[in-house]
Write the structure tokens for this entry.
Amino acid sequence: MERAVYQRLDRLEQQHWWFAARRKIIETMIVHFCGRGSDKKVLEAGCGTGGNLQMLSGFGELAAFELDDEARTLASAKFKMEIKPGHLPDGIPYSPGQFDVVGAFDVLEHVEQDMESMSKLAEQLAPGGKLFITVPAMPWLWSKHDETHHHYRRYTRASLEAALKQAGLVPHYISYFNTFLFPVIAGFRLLRKALGLPETADDEMPAPGVNKVLQLAFGAERFLLGRISLPVGVSLFAVAGKP
């Protein structure tokens, strides 16, 4: 990603509605599929500036790796642990077969070899372990956000499921999410394109009241995810395991 994006993420990811609500959703999904307790070994692949580390540490022994030097430094300072340098698909700095939970949260869209990366992440799973993935959805929502974040693609449910299966994984659950706000986000992006309005960064901090409302709306989806599959959304959530 661009330097300014990492710096902006580091400032925002504790309070911004999207990051805060997504953390709650990720936490709820791990509990749903792996149970509570702090007895697990957890790996976050591509931890960025470290916004998920505190939450993930509540599940047990935590490991993480990150390609970008600046992001790794920011993450290590934020959460006092060693963040190893590493990359997907062939630069994972840990021995295979040891993790109960492996997370790649909005990471695979940054990697050209996404199927190969899923396969390598699957190798990190201990018997019975689960891989948790979030990715941006709906290719027609492509915007400046995707360009500044250096995305290769946005997914559909079908394309994500196909990639998981080709990587040798068994999908346990796939759903769109960020569904409640989808009409607003999609409508705004389409209107902006139709009117030829210039695109600006859409990950700036909104006013406090707006931020709170958006966080509550997005975060409420955690009560549905894992139980039903939502039909549309700005993002996709997948849980998979080895055969």
About this structure: The first strand starts at residue 40 and ends at 45. Strands lie at 40-45, 60-66, 84-85, 99-105, 125-136, 170-177, 235-241. The chain has one domain: 3-241.
